[in-house]
Amino acid sequence: MSRIAVINLATLGLLIGGALTAHLTGHAFLVTLATKAAIFALAGVGLNFALGYGGLVSFGHAAFFGIGGYVTGILASHAMSGQPLTTLPYTMNGTNEMLAIWPMVLLVSGLAALAIGALSLRTSGVYFIMVTLAFAQMIYWFAVGWPAYGGEDGLSFYVRNAFPGVQTMQPLSWFLICAGLLLMTLGFTAVVMRARFGLALQAARRNTQRTVAVGIRPFGIRLTAFVLSAMITGLAGSLYADLNRFVSPAMLSWYMSGEIMVFVILGGVGRLVGPVAGAMLFVTMEHLLGGISDYWQVLLGLVLLGVVLWSPGGIVGMLSGRGRGHA
Amino acid sequence: MHDAILDIRRLRKAFGALTATDDVSLTLYPGEIHALIGPNGAGKSTLIKQIVGELRPDAGEVRFEGQRIDGLDAAARARLGLARSFQVSSVIPDFTVLQNVCLAVQGGSGRSFGFLRPILSDSGLTEPAGFHIRQVGLDGREQIAAGALSHGERRKLEVAMALALRPRAFLLDEPMAGMGTEGAGQLVSLLSGLRTEAPILLVEHDMDAVFALADRISVLVYGRIVATGSVDEIRANPEVRRSYLGEEA
Q1: CB A35 within 8 A of CB A171
Q2: Higher confidence at residue B184 or residue A37?
Q3: SS3 B138
Q4: Cα–Cα distances in angstroms (integers) from residue B51 to residues A214, A218, B48, B84, B132, in the given order
């Protein structure tokens, strides 16, 4: 087994083993903490798809995280109140079934990414960063000013949505659903990056001119990657809403975009389990240090500085003993 | 005579007051190596960019196998079989040799939206790629990262990537740049064999290589073609000797 495979297994083992141990020793709160890490990891895996493999530095992924959250919250609140979302062109009711919510989340965040990506991918570099940020801020302010779903105060829905045959309010069951989705997404990412699409995407990141010269147009490849990336982050947003049973514009803020980026950079850009390692470290630090001081992020900043300066491949890059590259 | 594969007619491109391409007409016939020479700043790179579609000419037309291709973008022209190599080696450094050539096969096939089957078990990619790797003599180096290759090997990899497009014409921009004398000899014989695959428009500074390879030579000075002819004709042309070859001839 290669060293990188060992690191991948160890990272995932730490997350899942940690949650199981916490459950067996009766620390339900730590199970929930692991769930939060798994959800943040999923959001990071989504961003890594575009940023790590495609070189598309999106500073607007909170838009998709928040859209996933709001779709979930809106559907759940309508299911609770019994009022249909809309009666035109036909009656559409809310739902509290995760298996019905997730496809809707994937659809809406994918469509949003198609529109945002089609415009922002006409730019590159720092302009791409700014355009994605601008779109996310537009959606943020829209949510703030939308009183029907709580506006600035956000939207609560009291009961976690349902999954067939599973008691979702039980912390370990809920963790396993989130971890299962994380594993499936990691598997999907690994397969895609070894296939034709992944080859073209990574080639376009490293050498656009050469990629064009062999007859591949980067735009369609990058737009597809951006959409898939947004759908994954949107799914994470749906889970995050269910974790807290609450959504608010904070999920859409640029601060959230930055946090998702921190997971990716801490763990290792373009590394398969990089975002998992990054999200675990982030949640652990927040838990251990956040109780001591509200200014714990000063330390996070130092850690981030250290990683960027001395190990640009992130935690995974440091452990694998290689610089920037591919997991 | 056969019809020209590449037929450039009265191409013109100006950057402000500087006319980089001044009424250039140029043809490339099947089976030939047509060398384009000229001093630095003569407009060779500008001309190449207009042929491959990176730069839009102000006037004139580019015909490829009888069809006008002026309106197509660079990716579409590559897919038609206009294979290009770069002045500075241009490969994907952290891809292996095999992955680089697979990328070119994939680009030529026009099918990049495969999400499931791994490249390395996609025989539609690996078989042609392996063939072209052997063709340039890089067999045994398939799993080496392209960034770890020697300069000469990287040049060969570029030729393999060009071949993988199953080209109808090659545009080679200074393939000899940076080669040592020993490697240069190898590369000259590799390039010489390529003309049976597809004709080559060769931009080159190394006059020994040009005289060894070219069937015809065109001389570009200040954006204009001042002479086109066989190697002997160009060597004998007094204007060329004065304006370009100087003491060398």
Answers
A1: yes
A2: A37
A3: coil
A4: 15, 20, 5, 10, 25
The total of structural domains in chain B comes to 2
Residue B3, CA distances (Å) to B27, B61, B64 in order: 9, 16, 10
pLDDT at B90 over 80: yes
Q: Chain B interface, mutation test: which of A205, A214, A228, A320, most B Cβ atoms within 10 Å?
A: A214
CATH number at residue B215: 3.40.50.300
**Residue % of chain A over a pLDDT of 90:** 84
Spell out the domain ranges in chain A: 16-253
Residue B241: pLDDT band (50, 70, 90) is confident
Report which residue type is found at A165: G
Angle of the A274-290 helix axis to the A3-24 helix axis, nearest 10:
40
Question: Which segment of A100-104, A273-277, B37-41, B74-78 scores lowest on mean pLDDT?
Answer: B37-41
Q: Do A203 and B95 touch (CB under 8 A)?
A: yes
Largest CA distance in chain A: 59
* A310 CB-contact burial (10 Å; exposed 0-12 / middle 13-18 / buried 19+): exposed
Structure tokens, B150: 């020697």
Q: Which residues of chain B have a CB within 8 Å of the CB of A228? A: none
Its sign, for the CA torsion A310, A311, A314, A320, is negative
Instruction: List the one residue out of A67, A74, A139, A132 whose CA is nearest residue A106.
Output: A67
Q: Residue A253 is encoded by which pair of tokens?
A: 């803020």
- Give the pLDDT of residue B35: 95
The alpha carbon of residue B240 is apart from the nearest alpha carbon of chain A, in Å, by 33
Q: Is B238 on the interface with A (CB under 8 A)?
A: no
- For B15-48, write each residue's pLDDT tens digit: 998 999 999 999 999 999 999 998 888 889 899 9
Same domain as B161, residue B172: no
- The rounded distance, in Å, linking the Cα atoms of A62 and A132 is 10
Written as one letter, the residue type at A237 is: G
**Which DSSP state fits B88?**
S
Establish how many alpha carbons lie within 13 A of residue B165's alpha carbon, considering only the half-sphere containing its beta carbon.
30
pLDDT for residue A326 is more than 60: no
Boundaries of domain holding B50: 1-81+167-249
